Amino acid sequence: MSQAFELPSELTIYSALDTRDALLAWLSATGAGDDQPLALMASRVSEVDGAGLQMLTALTRLDRPWHLVEPSAALTQACATLGLSDWLTQHGVMA
Amino acid sequence: MSRASDADQDFIAAAMPAFISEAGEQTEAIESLLLELEEQPDNRELLDSLFRCAHTVKGSAGIFGLNKVVEFTHHVETLLDKCRDGVLALTPQLSTLLLRCNDQIKNLVQMANDESADSAEQKSERAELVAQLRLYTEGSKQASPADAAHADAPDTADPPQAGPTLWRIKAQFGPETFRNGMDPLSIAKYLHGMGQVESMVCGWEKVPSLIDMDPEACYLSFEMALESSASRDEVQGAFSFVEDDCVLEISAQESKQQRLVHELEELPVTPRLGDMLVSVGAVSQDKLGELLTEQAQADQAKPKIGDLLETKAGVPPKVVEAALNKQQKTREASGEENRYIRVQADRLDAVINLLGELVIAGAGANLLAREARNVPLIEANLHINALIEEIRNGTLGLRMVPVGETFSRFRRVVRDTAAQLGKEVNFEIVGGEAELDKSMVEKIADPLMHLVRNSLDHGLEPPQERLAAGKLAAGKLVLSARHETGAILIRIEDDGRGINRERVLQRAWDKGLIEQGVVPSDDVIHMMIFEPGFSTAEQVTNLSGRGVGMDVVKRNIEALRGSLKLDSRPGQGLRVDIRLPLTLAIIDGFMVGVGKSKFVLPLGAVVEVIEAGGPQVRVDAQGRHVVELRGTVLPVVRLRSLYDIESTQPERTSVVVVQSPKGKYGIEVEVLHGQQQTVIKPLGRLFKSVRGISGSSILGSGEVALILDVGSLWDLATVSTSAPTSANDAG
Fold first, then answer.
1. So what's the pLDDT on residue B144?
2. Most buried of B390, B413, B520, B652 (most Cβ within 10 A)?
């Protein structure tokens, strides 16, 4: 059982590099052989910008199923604004 | 049009007369519409037609490169548009201005072939009119700044601001976007604030995998549909900081409202308003059914379905209006445009001429068949002749136009003339739908115009005088038309002072038209006003009273084989009756013979025939020939003695009783040949002076028959004391 990744509260351009590295580290830690869907906790995300959303869309390129758990209001709103609502419905999971 | 090729030039030259004639009709329509609008200023339909007329003139003038017409008419159109939008009211002053403008449009159209005919006076008049038009249109523009703002907007390709525009925005952001401190998300947020976002799709196809991506580079794009009243510039402004690094496409799409409007316009022929709105989804079928039931149940003052749709179903007024327009256009397209073919008058005349020859040839064939006593051939001929008659009636019918077209032209004349003379007048047109040969309509217009002016000028009194005489201040002038036994009766009736019999008589004596001291009958005195150089107006106005005209009126009407009759009631009014034949080409005739000569009477005038053996012609106390018919004594014309026909006289004669405008009388003849279609050929100059004959006709056998003029024969019948009489008159 893999550990869920906790998305930072600030999912913006300023933290983009760090978040990417953290995500990559987490992905390699969970191991390729695990069939369990990856879970990203998104309830703490309070600040999000285009770069942050772009990072999340990059996850879609993974060949493993994954989902966002409990996306915060800020994240949901940002997705709606940028036209990612449908995308969020696919990957978002309410706890 | 300077680039036009020779072929184009040829086409333009060939089509120009059609344009001039059509534009002429449009300007006439504009005039009558304006006058009708004066009476019903709130009539939206009239206003719309008015606008369409001006628009049509402008449009077709544009095709012909008549820039002056286009330019000038454009100003008129602009003003009319304001009226349609309810920004301007069509006041009498505005109406007068528009009438003057219309006159200028007419002039410009007339000068289409010859630009040099444009005089300096007219140019300045036009300039003045344009200035006045501007005063109205621009004055109202200030009142609605939205309009002005729109007019100043540089991007004219955008749809007109009929509500918000649906902007379709596509943006592919450059990789440096984030590093430059910009964010597609905040731009999207900003755009959300500008209006209603109909759809928003983020494009992240270009975002690479987490490993390959540069987290600080931007790979995003989005497509947004934004309904907003913001201008293109304002929308573009949202991207002002990323512009250098961004592929941006902004296109104006119709808003939902505009889309409905457009879809309506593109609908196939669907005449019912409700169905149109259902098919584009503006209202549901169920709701429509509900409303239709409601409409059907309303007892009085049935609400219009359009209004119901607006109020009960919440369909935006703009959409209902578009549907109504579409409906109107559909009706027009299926009605007007398809119903009319423009044919040159001379082509039609050529057909009618040929038809005349065909009638003659048919009569010839018929005669031969009868002589040959070949029954099947006679029957075949009868059938052919029946068909020829149908074609003849049909073709003549093509030439028939309602006389009302001419009448309505007079509204303007009456209006302007009355205003100029300081008189008030109620002008009425009755029976404008009566039809008359097109060529007759054209020829009768001028004489009628004169008579109408005459009534206004001499007949109707100024308001004070009328009040003093116990009449209403506003005079009444009625122009009417109706069919009457193969002729049309046009009547001009006023309730003015009538003809001043004494003054006319005095004048006639002075001018030597009547011998001093001789007092003829009232009819004769009244007809004096039609003598050349006769005018009783004490003061010559520039309208009438110069004594030029009334004689021309009489001459013109007589040239059309028409007659004039005056009925004057002193102090109460004057009635002028003009009788005209319906057509100049062919008449249904009744052929009779005297000796070897043949005569044709218009069939419509023949009342009955007293065949040989009935009551005989005798001579009354004054030496006139008369016949007694059921207790009435009718005067009789003897063609034999009138035209000195030499042949052995048969023992007994027949009498054809005819009805003339002046009364019934008989014509004594020897042979009754019966009914026959007769093509009228005008008489040569030599025979113009022969009394009682209006024309001639060539018969199938090649013989010539003379066509009797029932009206002028009456005079000969009643004054036959002067006609030569033969020895064996006592019958």
1. 40
2. B413
Q: Which long-range contacts (CB under 8 A, 24 or more apart) does B717-723 make?
A: B717/B624, B717/B625, B717/B635, B717/B636, B717/B637, B717/B665, B717/B666, B717/B667, B718/B624, B718/B635, B718/B665, B720/B623, B720/B624, B720/B625, B720/B635, B720/B637, B720/B638, B721/B622, B721/B623, B721/B624, B723/B638, B723/B641, B723/B642
- At residue A1, the pLDDT reads 47
Read out DSSP for B548-602?
Answer: -SHHHHHHHHHHTT-EEEEEEETTTEEEEEEEEES-SSEEEEEEEEETTEEEEEE
In angstroms, the separation between the Cα of residue A51 and the nearest Cα of chain B is: 7
Q: Which of B210, B219, B220, B224 to mutate to test the interface with A (most CBs of A within 10 A)?
A: B210
Q: Which helix (H) or strand (E) holds B668?
A: strand B663-669
Q: Which residue of A has its CA nearest to B201?
A: A83
Give the number of residues written for chain B: 731
Q: Which residue of B has its CA nearest to A11?
A: B215
Residue A62: closest CA among chain B residues belongs to which residue? B209
Render pLDDT for A31-85 as a digit per residue (tens, 0 to 9).
Answer: 655 667 788 888 888 889 999 999 888 888 887 888 888 888 889 899 989 988 8
Residue B426 structure tokens: 């109620």
Q: Give me the sheet containing B221-228, strands edge to edge.
A: B196-203, B221-228, B165-173, B246-253
β pairing state of B597-602 and B586-594? antiparallel
Residue contact B204–A60, C-beta within 8 A: yes
Helix (H) or strand (E) holding B173: strand B165-173
CB contact under 8 A, B185 and A62: no
If contacts are CB pairs under 8 Å, which of residues 199-258 in chain B contact chain A? Answer: 199-202, 204, 207-211, 213, 215-216, 218-220, 222-224
Assess contact for B477 and B494: CB atoms under 8 A: yes
Domains belonging to chain A, first-starting first, are 5-93 (3.30.750.24)
d(CA B227, CA B199): 10
* pTM > 0.80: no
| Contact yes or no for B673/B582 (Cβ under 8 A) | no
Residue A83 with chain B: CB contacts under 8 Å: 188, 199-202, 222-224
Q: Which residues of A touch B211 (CB under 8 A)?
A: 24
Q: For residue B636, what are the β-bridge partners?
A: B666
- Which tokens hold the place of B677? 């279609």
Q: B1-12 burial by CB neighbour count: b if 16+ within 10 A, else e? A: eeeeeeeeeeee
Residue B475's φ and ψ, nearest 5 degrees, are: -75, 165
Q: Report the Cα B414 to chain-centroid distance in Å.
A: 17
ipTM for this model? 0.91
- φ, ψ of residue B659 to 5 degrees: the values are -105, 120
Residues 6+ apart with CB under 8 A from A59: A23, A40, A66, A91, B210
Strand segments, DSSP code E, in B26-83 are: none
Q: What is the DSSP letter of B674?
A: E
Task: Please tell me whether residue B248 adopts helix, strand or coil conformation.
Answer: strand
Residue B306 φ/ψ, nearest 5 degrees: -60, -45
Residue found by looking up tokens 């034949």 in the block: B581
Separation in Å, CA of B225 to nearest CA in chain A? 11
* Residues of A in Cβ contact (< 8 Å) with B214: none
Please give the pLDDT value at position B160.
Answer: 47
**Rounded average pLDDT per 10-residue block, chain B, 731 residues:** 57 76 85 84 83 83 80 86 80 85 86 74 84 77 40 41 75 87 87 86 87 88 87 83 82 69 62 70 74 70 71 75 72 54 78 79 84 89 86 77 79 83 86 79 83 85 87 88 78 87 83 79 81 58 51 80 84 88 71 88 84 72 79 84 79 84 83 79 68 76 80 74 41 34
